[in-house]
Amino acid sequence: MRKNIVAGNWKMNKTLQEGLALATELNEVLAGAELKCDVVIGTPFIHLASVAATIDTKVIGVAAQNCANKESGAYTGEISAAMVKSTGANYVILGHSERRAYYGETAELLKTKTELALANGLTPIFCIGEVLEERESGVFFDVVKGQIVDSLFDLSAEDFGKIVLAYEPVWAIGTGKTASAAQAQEIHAFIRATIAAKYGESVAQETSILYGGSCNASNAQELFSNPDVDGGLIGGAALKVADFKAIIDAF
Ligand code: PEP
Predict the structure, then answer these.
(1) Would residue 168 show up in a list of annotated catalytic residues for this protein?
(2) What is the rounded average pLDDT of the residues 176-182?
């Protein structure tokens, strides 16, 4: 059975002290709770080790929001997948639309990052999704398929099976506009069929596909009740424990 996952993406928010307070509060709220999904928090790099040492990582997984496309060496300012892993983090968010748009991350670069993440024992949460123009012109199926094929379809079936996908329509991220439950289900089913055509039905059925884009306590339940929506990647609503917990409780 594939996993249901609610993953928070803190983006560039929270000082170390604020982040530790948020993680500690979440840890307390989730301790002993009966969870119907896995929970992950994606913190800034500098928070990872302290957060991982503070919380119960069996209850809350820890994710970086990026990693380098090089193993090690003279790449000033970069953080390698091995370094991320050494903090106690187990996940890395890759291909977020903000990284693609503001930092020029290409399909080829993301392919390398994904391979390095997997080689270092990290689970990539790999983001895909179209911009508004692509949604409105109807090319979004091709765009999303291209993002998957170009960065992930050279992986072996075994390695692909370790990936979590996050479908995040760019027009819904941080905008307060959400894909409708029907729009989410339509594209998630398409993504699963795309995986099945390449790797077979059992790999496709085992792949968790999260929805991201203004997901909140009010819409999470409807989105997550779709058969092909296996949870959420949550930005703004991950910054307050009550909001994030309400999304976790949507399962
Ligand atoms: C995100 O950045 O991954 C995201 C989904 O953000 P928000 O929930 O704020 O739209």
Answers:
(1) yes
(2) 93
Pocket perturbation via mutation, ligand 1, pick of 41, 97, 100, 214 by most ligand atoms within 8 A of CB: 214
213 C-alpha to center of ligand 1: Å? 5
pLDDT computed for residue 1 by the predictor: 85
Counting from 1 in the atom list of ligand 1, the atom nearest the Cα of 172 is: 10
Residues with CB under 6 A from ligand 1: 9, 168, 173-174, 212-215, 233-237
pLDDT above 90 (res 142): yes
Q: List alpha helices for the chain, DSSP H.
A: 16-30, 48-54, 81-86, 97-102, 107-119, 132-137, 140-152, 157-160, 181-199, 201-206, 220-224, 241-248
CA distances to 31, 50, 111 from 158, in Å:
33, 32, 16
Distances (CA, A) of 185 to 167, 189, 192, 223: 11, 6, 10, 8
Ordered domains of the chain (ranges, CATH)? 5-248 (3.20.20.70)
Nearest to 169 by CA among 214, 225, 219, 103: 214
Residue 172 pLDDT level (bands cut at 50, 70, 90) = very high
96 among known catalytic residues: yes
The CA-to-CA distance between both ends of the chain, in Å, stands at: 15
* Best probe residue, ligand 1, of 5, 9, 91, 97 (max atoms within 8 Å of C-beta): 9
